[in-house]
Amino acid sequence: NELLGGFQLVNGETIWFDGPVITAMRRGAVLLLDELVAGDPNRLMCLQSVLEGSAVYLKKINETVEPQPGFQVVATANTKGNGEDTYGKFVSNNTLDAAMLDRLPIWIEWDYPSAKVETNILQNHAQDFGAELDEESIQNLVTWAGHNRKLFKQDGIDDVITTRRLCYIVQAFSVFGKLEKSIKYATNCFDTETSDSLMTLWKSVTKGEVTSDEDNTENSEAENVDKKKFFN
User: pLDDT by residue (tens digit) across 58-76?
Assistant: First the structure.
């Protein structure tokens, strides 16, 4: 399993190289398993003892590796390991074994940034790309995305405007110089009905028919966790 390591051919010799899991265990480092549920469930089974804090026996080199102080495992995912249930948005996400999920003790749902933080992100992005977007336009983009996300959660629209896509719009504006055209180009990835709905919502925002909503708050639950209880 490449997560643990394997032999590689070097100058005609087969040499063992630690994989990311073993490397992190030896160093007492944080192991980040990005997009965990996109992995092969059978291959991920090798992580069960790791997630329990146990040593790992490497049969191929007859060595037992103990996790060093500080070693932690953090995983990210768009779904919760129970398969794809978002109307095809994450079709590459697999269903993980219940035994694997049971070894992940803490689950934190991370929402989008607050309106204030997202505004700062877009302002910095505009500066980086030389996009001369005024404060009102950036605020309108944040307001537009915030209401779209509410509609998405209520099943009122099929797609969501992410912070990444807002950044794409800013980048497009640096090229085309027209905000509505940049929005249209950035949302053409969605089906026609959704794209048209997003443009209608945008026009409502710019006309003042839809105003800023401060319900898009910080991830206070995650930020206020006493990390010493879990990560030391």
Answer: 999 999 999 999 999 999 9
Residues 6 or more apart in contact with residue 14 via CB below 8 angstroms: 7, 8
Tell me the residue length of the chain: 232
Q: Which residues of 13-27 are buried (b: 16+ CB within 10 A; e: fewer)?
A: eeeeebeebbebbee
| Cβ-contact 160, 112 below 8 angstroms | no
pLDDT at 219: 47
Distance (Å, whole) CA 134 – CA 229: 44
Structure tokens at 131: 């996009």
Residue by residue, DSSP assigns 29-88 as PEEEETTGGGS-HHHHGGGHHHHTT--EEETTTTEEEPPPTT-EEEE--SS-SB---STT
CA-based nearest residue to 189, from 165, 222, 224, 171: 165
Question: What gap in Å lies between CA 147 and CA 133, rounded to an integer?
Answer: 21
Tokens 């749902």 correspond to 109
pTM over 0.90: no
- Would the CA dihedral through 32, 36, 39, 44 be positive or negative? positive
Average pLDDT over the chain, rounded to an integer = 88
CB 68 within 8 A of CB 27: yes
Compute the distance between CA of residue 206 and CA of residue 144 in angstroms, rounded to an integer: 9
In sequence order, which residues have a C-beta less than 8 Å from that of residue 176 and are 6 or more positions away?
A: 182, 185
Is the Cβ–Cβ distance between 17 and 6 less than 8 Å? yes
